[in-house]
UniProtKB/TrEMBL annotation:
Record's keyword annotation contains Acyltransferase: yes
Annotated Gene Ontology cellular component terms: cytoplasm
Natural source organism: Cohnella terricola
Locations listed in the record: Cytoplasm
Any one GO molecular-function label of the UniProt entry: phosphate:acyl-[acyl carrier protein] acyltransferase activity
Family: Belongs to the PlsX family.
This protein's pathway: Lipid metabolism; phospholipid metabolism
Catalytic activity: a fatty acyl-[ACP] + phosphate = an acyl phosphate + holo-[ACP]
Protein name, per record: Phosphate acyltransferase
Predominant cellular place of this UniProt entry's protein: cytoplasm
């Protein structure tokens, strides 16, 4: 399998990306890893003894976070993100990963790679950690700020298939994010969507509230991109604030420091369970090729997780399964 990595996109590019690729290449020698970016920057980072399953695809431009997404994709045709997308489109890579501008990656998926037949709106799917350690796939996390009930129905079908194919869950539980668990709760979008999901060929478990997302009440959570992105950032912010408060309290006195030293292994396990790096790699479902979004602040560990997730999706023929599902085969 061949995976193209946008080596210039993200807060810690290209160093973290090269580090992750070196580690991944050693662990998975059957995978061809293609760093897309400036060769003069990437070659020194790779060194003289890089594994043979790493290569470089030249790209002279970079799409920055402040760039307007559609305009950047259309004008910066030799950017690392667009070149990686073109490789997927032309069959030169089985998938691409980018930690760059989310809007630009969405535009790359739509304008360069192309949409799957039968899909109206692609969705960004992200994994949340849960207390039962199974994780929750949530979509849409920000690809589309506005959505129709029919779009959410497609998200549910794609998310259910993803968890089945990639994570091996035979009957994924699908929940609809809402302000209450009762069927009659919510706005017009969620009320109409509820009826569609009830009659869909999925295991729909009803409405779920934001406070229950990390409790493991479902395997797939559906929402519009506006609500999903707010939820994602709220959870990230809350987790960061809680750990910051814990650090302050546990270093506030000598007694606290002694107690913290004794509890250090427990705190480390909690941190690891809630670490987004362990869940990095959000596929843009609905695109006619595997396009994966890494967190903007992804370090080498997070990027390697995204590579692992992408390998699994390729091995389980995720895109072919989605194409069959929505083409009526």
């Amino acid at each position: 399998m061949r995976i193209a990595i946008d080596a210039m996109g993200g807060d810690h590019a290209p160093n973290a990306h090269v580090e992750s690729v070196l580690s991944a290449a050693a662990e998975w020698p059957d995978t061809q890893l293609i760093l897309v970016g400036d060769p003069d920057v990437l070659r020194p980072l790779l060194g003289d003894n890089a594994p043979g399953n790493i290569s470089i695809e030249a790209a002279s431009e970079v799409i920055e976070n402040e760039d307007e997404p559609v305009r950047a994709v259309r004008r910066k045709t030799n950017s690392s993100m667009v070149v990686a997308g073109r490789m997927v489109k032309e069959g030169l890579a089985d998938a691409m990963i980018s930690s760059g501008n989310t809007g630009a990656l969405m535009a790359t998926g739509l304008l360069v790679v192309g949409r799957l037949t039968g899909i109206e709106r692609p969705a960004l799917a992200a994994m949340f950690p849960t207390l039962d350690n199974k994780g929750l796939l949530a979509l849409d996390m920000g690809a589309n700020m506005d959505a129709k009930p029919e779009h959410l129905l497609q998200y549910a079908l794609m998310g259910s298939l993803y968890r089945s194919k990639v994570h091996g869950i035979s009957k994924p539980r699908v929940g609809l994010l809402n302000v209450g668990t009762e069927a009659a709760k919510g706005n017009e979008l969620t009320k109409i969507t509820y009826g569609l999901l009830e009659n869909a060929p999925i295991h729909f478990v009803g409405n779920i509230e934001a406070r229950d997302v990390l409790e493991g009440v479902c395997d797939v959570m559906i929402c519009d991109g506006f609500s999903g992105n707010i939820l994602l950032k709220a959870i990230e912010g809350a987790a960061s604030s809680i750990f910051k408060l814990l650090r302050e309290e546990l270093t506030s006195s000598l007694m606290s420091k002694v107690a913290a030293a004794a509890m250090k292994p427990n705190f480390r396990r909690i941190r690891d369970r809630m670490d987004y790096n362990e869940y990095n790699g959000a596929p843009l479902l609905g695109i006619n090729g595997l396009v994966v979004k890494g967190h903007g602040s992804s370090d080498a560990k997070a990027m390697k997780t995204a590579i692992r997730q992408t390998r699994t999706a390729i091995s389980n023929r995720l895109i072919a399964s989605l194409a069959d599902e929505f083409s009526g085969k």
